[in-house]
Amino acid sequence: MVDDSQARASAHAVLAAVLQIRQGRLQALLWQRAREPFAARWALPGGALAADETLEESMRRHLAEKVDVREVAHLEQLETRSDPRRNPSRRELATAFLGLVPSGVDPGVPADTRWHPLDDLPELAYDHGEILLGARERLRGKLSYTNLGFALAPPSFTLAELRDVYSAALGHPVGATNLQRVLLRRRLLEATGERRHYGSGGGRPATMYRFRRTRLEITDQFAVLRPPTMTS
Amino acid sequence: MVDDSQARASAHAVLAAVLQIRQGRLQALLWQRAREPFAARWALPGGALAADETLEESMRRHLAEKVDVREVAHLEQLETRSDPRRNPSRRELATAFLGLVPSGVDPGVPADTRWHPLDDLPELAYDHGEILLGARERLRGKLSYTNLGFALAPPSFTLAELRDVYSAALGHPVGATNLQRVLLRRRLLEATGERRHYGSGGGRPATMYRFRRTRLEITDQFAVLRPPTMTS
DNA sequence: TCGCGTTCTCGCCTCACGATCGATAACGTC
DNA sequence: GACGTTATCGATCGTGAGGCGAGAACGCGA
After folding, report:
1. Pairing state between β B206-211 and B189-196
2. Closest Cα to residue B58, out of A83, A7, A97, A127?
3. Which residues of B touch A54 (CB under 8 A)?
């Protein structure tokens, strides 16, 4: 155990914005505080950094108390918050993370923990509200120029399902036709060979796809000022 | 003063990758360590976080020891490094920053401090080499979809000069024609009304431009999966 | 003053890519 | 087997980036 003076002095916390598409909406994992400060307010999962771990190790350790960490398909560091007054009781830095859980799974969570849609949030503890909105912006940006979709989509899916995932995450309608062409041209998707129905009624069965790679990759060099086209 | 146990326990540092285009090359501000560990190695400017300041305030305070901070046109937080072994002498977290100095000015620096081209670096202390390369990647990305060029370019410039700035920062040739069209279409540049010569000999004088805004702005919504075009 | 080299500026063309729409394919259901 | 439903694909359009070359605007020297 660390003694109290060390714990107070080191005071570095990790916080996760864990996001998942649930019921067609982008939702975040929050838990309700029991004690002061901010008793009864909702907060991001997290906790104190220990002496011998990296920030990411610490984040996974604390997340494990709330969800099955194996369900988290992507974890990435965001901003480190440092306002001396962000925690009223004591000076504390906090490094935020973005965690993504694929759609479809429903990890068991403790009694004090619940999913909340990002477009209908309660008031949050500390600066967690800002962190959450920042995490959503990061997600939206990276969905467009990386293969990050793999972390939100189920292991395999029809294009209609994938369209709904992207649409919920981005917050605006997305054309399925276009989504297919873009992701196929970038070679992000491959057909599994199976087919399945989307809705209840009949109709042509959709071919199922999966993401080829499940690690983050940059897939779109930014348009402007690209190096001279070297056509092979 | 903080006592030793607190200083050891809190051990959070800030580090800046300060970049500028000098002699047509992207260069970083480094200082040469006098003491162990890593004596005689080159290192990023920075220092310890104090108890009552934010990370950015701390970063500006420490930077002031190396350069005139008023010359730093942009300062933005990067990754927080947390490997327990990154500092061999003691556990220390470090939050990295990206700082940009406009081309043209030559801030006075202390005797132990010098500019080094990023494509010809010495071996650096700690993990500062990785930080520096990460900072360059961030810069290159943001140059393409924001107005960040303002922080590297002089207050006013010809298009040929601006092309050289972008070319040095991006590491590949950039067409002046195209650069003009892109930046004008995005309304990032405006003509100052003056004209000036670029090289030594004669030639048509170039019109001078400046950036309209000197705060970071996103200027290019990512291409993919854009919301439906709402033509006004 | 008149050419001449130099540098910048602008317009035209091409190409790649996103967006949209309509036609066709592949099912369930009655 | 006809019909509604859903998925898929191709054709087309618009837009923006890249490339090239003609002309514009200078300095300089004969």
Report:
1. antiparallel
2. A83
3. 82-84
Distance from CA of B156 to the nearest CA of A (A): 20
Whether chain A has a CB inside 8 Å of the CB on B173: the answer is yes
Residue of B nearest to A96 (CA): B80
Contacts of B49 in chain A (CB under 8 A): 82
Residue A10: band (very low, low, confident or very high) from pLDDT cuts 50, 70, 90: low
Cα–Cα distances (Å) from B171 to B123, B174, B220, in that order, read 21, 9, 21
Nucleotide nearest to B198 (CA to C1'): C7
Q: Which residues of A touch B54 (CB under 8 A)?
A: 82-84
Helix A159-170 × helix A176-185 angle, to 10°: 100
Count chain A–chain B contacts defined by CB atoms under 8 A.
99
Q: Is B103 helix (H, G, I), strand (E, B) or coil?
A: coil
- Strand D nucleotides within 7 Å of a protein CB: 4-10, 16-21, 23-28
Is A12–B93 a contact, with Cβ atoms under 8 angstroms apart? yes
The predicted model scores a pTM of 0.90
Q: How many CB atoms within 10 Å of residue A203?
A: 9
Per-residue pLDDT averaged across A189-214, rounded?
A: 85
* Cα pseudo-dihedral B46, B52, B55, B61, rounded to 10: -40
Per the model's pLDDT, the better-predicted residue between B4 and B157 turns out to be B157
- Pairing relation of β-strands A46-48 and A206-211? unpaired
Residue A62 token pair: 């604390």
Indicate the residue type of B23.
Q
Interchain proximity B220–A223, CB inside 8 Å: yes
- A185 CB contact with strand C at below 7 Å: yes
Q: Return the pLDDT at A145.
A: 86
* Encoded tokens for A144: 């467009």
Q: What are phi and psi of A198, to 5 degrees?
A: -95, -65
| pLDDT higher at A145 or B231 | A145
Q: Does residue A224 carry a pLDDT above 60?
A: no
Whether a cis peptide bond, with omega within 30° of 0, leads into A37 is: yes
DSSP B157: B
